[in-house]
Each structure stands twice: as C-alpha cells, then as structure tokens.
C-alpha cells in the first residue's frame, strides 16, 4: 500500500523548478526551466499533465539539476520505487557514444547507485538504466509527442542489490542483479551529467513520484475524476466541477480550487480568489465539498494544505478540457498568457 502522500511527489505545476526539492536549482547556463504549456506549444510540445513540466534545452556541455536530500533516503536492505515521465524531443542531437543522465539516486560522495538517461549508439537513440550507466537499454524514436512512463524499483544492498526498470509498465531487459549499493542519501533530476560540446535539443520531465511500493502506470487524461496528492492543475480548459472532496490524517486538510490553468507562485494568478474552499473536520475522513455544480472558465488548479492531504475532483460531461496532446498545443497557441 502506497504511503499518502507519497514519499516524494513533484509536479512542477507552479512554474518553479525546485519548489518540491531541498536544494535550489543548479543551472549556471540556464538550460532548465518549468514553462507553461503555452510556451511549450510554440515548439510543438505539451506537458504530461497540468499546466507545466520540467524542461531541459541542452546547450553543449552545460548541466543542470535539482536535488532532494531527504525524501529518497533508503538504507541498505530496503526498497525504493521511482516513477516519472520523460519526453525526448525530435530536436535532440547527441553524438554516437554520448549519454545524458536524467535521474540519479546517489550515496555518500555523490556516487551514483541508480541512474536513468538517454544515449546514442550509432544512429540509434536509446533510453537506459543501470547502476552508473547503460546496463539495460530501450531503442526509441525521438518525438515531440511521445511520453514514456518510467518506473525504477531498486533493492538497495551492498553487493546483492537489484534494479528493475519498467517502461509503460513493461519490464525492460530483465532484472539487473549483483549491484553494489550504499545507502541512498539524495536524488537528482535534470541534465545531470554526460553532456558533450555538440549536444542540443529538448528533454521534458513530467511528474515524479517516489514511494515504498510500486506506483504502476498512471492515466494521463483521467476521464472524469482526478486524484490530487500535490498542488497541480487537475483540468486544463473550461469545465464544470460536479464534486470535490478532501481528506487528511488530521483535521486540518484544506483544498482550495482556483479558476486558472496558468498558476505560478510568482505570477498574477497567485492572488486569485478561490472558487472552491473545502476542509475536512474528521481525521482520515473524506469530506464532501459541495453538491451544486461549479463552473470554471479556464481550468481548475487545486492547492492542498494540512497533514497528509489528498483530494478528488470530478467534472461533468461534456466539458471542454484538454484530453490530448494536440488539444494542449492548439489551446496553447490560441490563448493569451494571462486572462
């Protein structure tokens, strides 16, 4: 059973790269950001979910990352599961033999114990996973619309560690065994290492989750009900909310829903008044929010506070919410940034 909330959950849906990470962004060449879907649409891209995602636009040898020093901690003899989504843009260009690490679990001294990334072998681009580099690989085609769901299951053990790597729920290359792990003390995501002078192109990372149980593939465009465990845009586009509820392990869980699809903690939507405000009054009880449909003109951004909060937001059909990659791009190219 997964912990609620997860050990770690990043959405990047406030437009900031390091809100949900202990260490500030390391990015001296400004190759990393968390753009809104309108900006992504200019290049023919769309986020995995919500209004934003993490983006790296490679520029030669430049590197970037955000680092978390607590949520990924795993001592030897224990297991950690990491889930995230990744898109390798059609414009990505790296040389034969180059590899770029995009996610890493590290032990003391910033030693890599689990890595995931993208490399090139001959003319073939590949995703890879391993202890320090490419042990298991998967051939891919670069695309501005193909998101991969990645899950890494690491049994941390000094000399007998294992790593299972799943893509879209399928185990790739069999279990990696005999890995010499040390206790994990940090996790990083970004263009962490392996860049070369002629590297260029776009890589996107969607939401990222760490937990003590498998996460499994998740639905990109929920049909009617969206489960929220971290602040994010549940629905992009006009919709009518039919129901909303919040729960938490104390009596202080609060869900606030704003009528916006462009939330940013530093932008104009930060001061928007809530359309829906719901609080639970009994620990571990799911408190219903309302029984009268509420109309949202732009989208529904859900904020959660309190002790271990989680929420459910449901919409009525039909609603004009984004339900495809193409709709993200057409809406992004057709709307103003703030309105």
TrEMBL record:
InterPro entries: ConA-like_dom_sf (IPR013320). Gene3D superfamilies: 2.60.120.200. This is Uncharacterized protein. It comes from marine sediment metagenome. The lineage of its organism: unclassified sequences, metagenomes, ecological metagenomes.
């Amino acid at each position: 059973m997964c912990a609620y909330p997860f050990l770690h959950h990043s959405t990047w849906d406030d437009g900031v790269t390091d809100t949900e990470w202990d260490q500030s962004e390391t990015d001296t060449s400004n190759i990393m950001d968390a753009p809104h879907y309108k900006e992504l649409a200019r290049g023919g891209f769309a986020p995995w979910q919500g209004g934003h995602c993490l983006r790296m636009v490679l520029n030669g040898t430049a590197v970037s990352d955000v680092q978390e020093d607590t949520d990924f901690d795993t001592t030897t003899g224990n297991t950690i599961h990491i889930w995230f989504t990744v898109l390798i843009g059609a414009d990505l260009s790296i040389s034969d033999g180059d590899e770029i690490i995009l996610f890493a679990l590290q032990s003391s001294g910033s030693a890599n114990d689990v890595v995931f990334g993208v490399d090139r072998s001959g003319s073939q681009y590949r995703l890879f996973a391993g202890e320090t580099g490419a042990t298991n690989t998967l051939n891919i085609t670069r695309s501005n619309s193909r998101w991969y769901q990645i899950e890494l299951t690491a049994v941390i053990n000094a000399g007998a560690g294992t790593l299972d790597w799943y893509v879209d729920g399928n185990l790739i290359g069999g279990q990696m065994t005999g890995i010499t792990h040390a206790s994990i003390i940090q996790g990083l995501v970004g263009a962490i290492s392996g860049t070369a002078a002629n590297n260029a192109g776009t890589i996107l990372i969607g939401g990222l989750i760490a937990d003590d149980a498998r996460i499994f593939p998740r639905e990109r465009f929920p049909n009617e009900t969206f489960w929220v465990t971290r602040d994010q845009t549940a629905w992009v586009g006009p919709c009518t909310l039919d129901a909303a509820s919040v729960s938490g392990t104390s009596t202080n869980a609060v869900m606030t829903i704003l009528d916006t699809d462009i939330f940013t903690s530093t932008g104009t939507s930060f001061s928007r008044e809530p359309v829906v405000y719901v609080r639970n009054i009994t620990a571990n009880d799911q408190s219903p929010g309302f029984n009268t449909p509420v109309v949202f003109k732009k989208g529904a951004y859900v904020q959660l506070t309190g002790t271990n909060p989680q929420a459910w937001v449901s919409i009525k059909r039909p609603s004009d919410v984004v339900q495809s990659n193409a709709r993200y791009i057409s809406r992004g190219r057709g709307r103003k940034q703030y309105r």
